[in-house]
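R.M. (postdoc): so does anyone remember the format we settled on? I'll just put the structure tokens first.
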């Protein structure tokens, strides 16, 4: 009888060591909600960029009434339009989540979203900073002013561009990679 009790205790102990069963539907729902939150965050970030870009384009159009500033205004419109179009094109390929997908598909979709944003931020110096920085340098070196007055602006513009690059390519990418690893572990 003692042997039977030992076997029963051993069986109960082994059952308690096995991981709890994971509800696949609940896990899929959790991952889908996380992907939707991420999509909303990216959507509103993009909307802020589009609104700011639209405001800048309107400002450049208003400045273009002055014939002396027309080429600078047109260059500004081109730079801002390039940034807005690049951002829009980078997001338009994203597929909506399939409501009937399984956990693996939701996880893959979420990881792909993180990968796309990481790739976008890693190239921010080319598609975001370079066109706007080029416009700033155009304005800086075509507006008549003494050379000594240009240096502080050059330093400020360059520092601003470097900060934007660092915030996106270092801090932003690191933050997204951490979130991606957390999503991968779910």
């Amino acid at each position: 009888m003692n042997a039977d009790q030992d076997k029963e205790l051993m069986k109960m102990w082994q059952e308690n060591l096995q991981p709890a069963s994971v509800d696949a539907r609940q896990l899929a729902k959790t991952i889908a909600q996380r992907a939707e939150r991420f999509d909303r965050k990216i959507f509103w970030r993009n909307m802020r960029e589009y609104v700011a870009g639209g405001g800048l384009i309107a400002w450049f159009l208003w400045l273009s009434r002055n014939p002396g500033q027309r080429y600078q205004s047109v260059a500004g419109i081109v730079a801002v339009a390039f940034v807005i179009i690049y951002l829009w094109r980078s997001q338009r390929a994203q597929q909506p989540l399939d409501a009937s997908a399984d956990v693996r598909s939701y996880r893959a979709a979420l990881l792909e979203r993180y990968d796309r944003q990481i790739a976008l931020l890693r190239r921010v110096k080319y598609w975001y900073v370079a066109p706007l920085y080029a416009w700033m340098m155009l304005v800086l070196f075509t507006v008549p002013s003494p050379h000594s007055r240009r240096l502080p602006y050059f330093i400020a513009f360059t520092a601003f561009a470097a900060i934007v690059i660092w915030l996106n390519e270092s801090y932003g990418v690191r933050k997204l990679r951490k979130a991606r690893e957390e999503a991968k572990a779910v």
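R.M.: ...and that's the designed sequence above, right after the tokens. Also worth knowing: The first helix runs from residue 2 to 17. Residues 24-185 form one domain.
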